[in-house]
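Posting this for the archive.
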Amino acid sequence: MSSLKNDRESADLARATAKDLLNAAEQAVATGVKVPTEKARVFGPIYSWWRLTCRTAEAVLLLTEQGFTVEIAPLVRNILNHAYAINWLADNGDAAVDALVARGDDEREKLCKKLEETGWAAASQFRAELDRIAAQQPAVTRTPAEEALHAKLKHELKNFYDMLDRYDVADIYPVYSHLSGLSHTTINTASAYVEQLDDGTLQIRLDAVELGHADVIQLAVALVQSATVVSPLIEGDPLRPAIDKAIAALGLEDVQLLPVRVK
């Protein structure tokens, strides 16, 4: 296990390591990337998720350096989610891409129905566009086994707990759940800027309390995880030196960074 702790020393190490990984990521894609043809379809969404993860991580580092605390929870939550989803997508290949596309179709249909139900003037135009796209899509025929896998992957994409559970890392979910509580209209956000004093009165705060250093540490680990998936898909495995350096710096040599499906 890593010796990383929720303290300033570990956070400083994680921050420096994260910046090194982000710099390596920028250099790796600065002049474009070469991807083997057989990996191109899977690489597209993985690359986009990875860039989102990297850019979001940059934002978190900037914000924490400026003293923001609870405000970064939605960003860290998104990084955590995408780091595991990147591994899921690479592991399941074309079938996962199909599930991702199908989920996108479902979400657009759901949005269109809400536009229609709530009386948006643009609903008819959106519906016409969806119909046009649907008419251009070729018919898909799947065997019963393929259809079962398709349904399973669509479910996992929508239900993060189940995605984690089927990779035997459901113990990560409480972290995600905690970050969710700091991202929505909950008692956690309702009390972030006030403090109840011993006499029962409320003291307002201009800033939320310091939550510790775990966010930056989790961010660095997520960057290692996602880079470990992405780099081998790019010709030359360009992030490998930075990944190896990060693993050594964070003491992750004996940690299973990428979970393996068990269900």
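Strands lie at 194-196, 202-204. The radius of gyration is 21 Å.
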